[in-house]
Amino acid sequence: MKKQSFLPHSLSKLKMVSPLVLFLSLSLYAQSSSLTEFNQFYKSGQYLKALTALEKSNSNDFLLGQHAYLEGLCYSKLQEYDKAIKSFEKAISEKNGNTDLQYEYGQALYAANELKAARKAFKESAAKKFNAPASIYYVAHISQILEEYPAAKDSYTELIKSKEADTKIKQIARFQLTETLLLMMREKIQNKDELEKNVAKYIVPMLRQAYSTDKSSQAAYEIEQRLHEIQKEFNLDPDLLANGRRISSKRYSGYISQKIKFDDNISLTNEENNIQQSKKESFIFESEGYAKYDFVLKKRFIVSPEVRITFVQNSDQDSPEVYQNDNFSINANLKNKYEHLVNGQPASFLFDIELGKTLKDWKQTHKREAYSNTMNLGIGEAFNYFSAGDTSFKIKRKNFTGVNELISNHTISVSGDQTISFTNQHLLIALIEADFINNYNNTPSNTNTYLARFDYLVPEIMSKYTLGLALATTITDTKEQNATRGTELTLNPSIDLSKEINEKMKISVNYDYTKNKSKQSDYDYKKHVFSTEFRYSF
Q1: Against a cut of 0.85, is the pTM above it?
Q2: Which of these, 277, 272, 339, lies nearest to 302 by C-alpha position?
Q3: In the CATH scheme, what is the code of domain 252-537?
Q4: What are the start and end residues of each CATH 2.40.160.60 domain in the chain?
C-alpha cells in the first residue's frame, strides 16, 4: 500500500527531535571513555562511530534497556530501520523509560512500512503525552493509508480540537480530513449529482478553511492546488462557466479618476444631439467614480449592477456658453449575461438596463439643476465566430427626457464590434454604430448618424507604457435640416499614452482632434482637446 508523500515532508518540520533525555540519562552514570566517545560522535552526526563506541562500552554503564534504546536511535539515523526496530523492541522488553521510545519506535516501523504496528506505537506515544500532536497525526494518517476512514476521521478531528497542536499541524490535519471525508463520500454516494452537491457543501468549504488557516505556508499552496483539482473534477470551479468561458476570480471592480482637459473650442449641447461650437476655450476638471460587482448564478447568468458618478466643472466661469456645460450625473446600470454556446464556442446573450440622471447649469446661473433623465434598454450577443477575437452585436433603445421638451427624444442604436488579437499582443477593435434620433417634440432636428471607429492598442510599447491610437468617422444625415446643414462629416483621430505606476494606479495623457464639416457655419468647426488623467483602480 502506497503512502502519501505529503505527510513525511510536511510533518518533518513539526516532529520533535528526540529529547536530550538521551544525553542526560548518560550523565546519571559514571561515564566510561566509550560512552564519552558515543556522546561526541552522536552529537556530531557520526552514527557509525557512535555505534562502535557503544559496542565497546561496559554493559554495567546502562540500566533498563538504555543500551538497546541508544542503539535503536543510531540505526534509525542510519536508516537501517529493521535493526532499529529490533533494538527498540529489546528496549521495550527491558522496560526502558525514555518518554520518546514509543515515538521513535513508531517512526522506524512507519519507515519500514509496518503500518499497523507503527500506529499502535504512536497511540502509546500519544497516551504518554510525548509529542502528542505529531503522534496523533501519524495515527490518523496511517488509518487513512489503511483505508480505515472512520478511524482516520476521528483522529484528525481530535487533533484539530487539541489545544497542544500548533497552527501548522492543524492546517495539515484539516487538509487530510477533507481528503478522508471525500474518500468516504466516494464509497458511499454513487449518484454523480448528489456527490457533486456534497462536495460543494462540505469539502470545498473545509478546504478553504484549511487554506485560510495560514495562507503563507507550503501546505497552503498544496491545499490551493488540490482545491482547484477538486473544483475542476466536480464542475465546481466558480470561475469556469457552463459554456467553458473562464472569468476573473475577482468579482468586483471599480476606479476613481481625475481628468484635467484643455478644450480650445467648447461644444454647446443646447440640443442634445446637435453639437455646435462656442469659439471659447477652457480648462475642464472631470472627476469620476465607478463601481461594479458580478453575481454569478448557476454558472450561466452573470448579473452586474454598476454605478457611475461624474462631476464636470469648467474653469471659465465668465462665459455662459461655457459654464452652462458644468454638470453632475449619476448612472445606475444593470448589465446581464446569459452564457451559452454557438457552434460549440462560448457566447453571451446580453440584456442591459441603464438609468441616468443629469444636473446641469443649463439656466446659466452657476447652479446645477435637474436637466434630463435617461433610460436605456439593450439586447445583444457576444460570441467567438472569428478565431482572431470576440464579436458582438447590440441593439438599444434610449429614452431621453429633458426639462426642455424640445430636446426630449427616442434613439434606436444598432452596433457591432470586432476585436482582433495579433500574435505580438497588439489589439485592434473595430466598431460600427448607427443611431436614429427622433426628437418627437421638435422633428426638424431629427438626425441619423453613422459611426465607424478603429482603436489600435500597443501594450508595453515601453516598460509599463501602453499606446492607444484611434480614428473615428461619423456621417450625420440632418434630414429636414439638410438644406441648411447638408450631410455632415466628422473626423476624430486621437492618441493616448498611459503609464502603469503600480497594479492599481496609472496616469495617462491624451490628444483628441475633432473636425466637423457642415454647410452651416455654427456646425462647421474644429477643436483640439488635451487631457491628463490619474486613475486609481480597486
Answers
A1: no
A2: 339
A3: 2.40.160.60
A4: 252-537
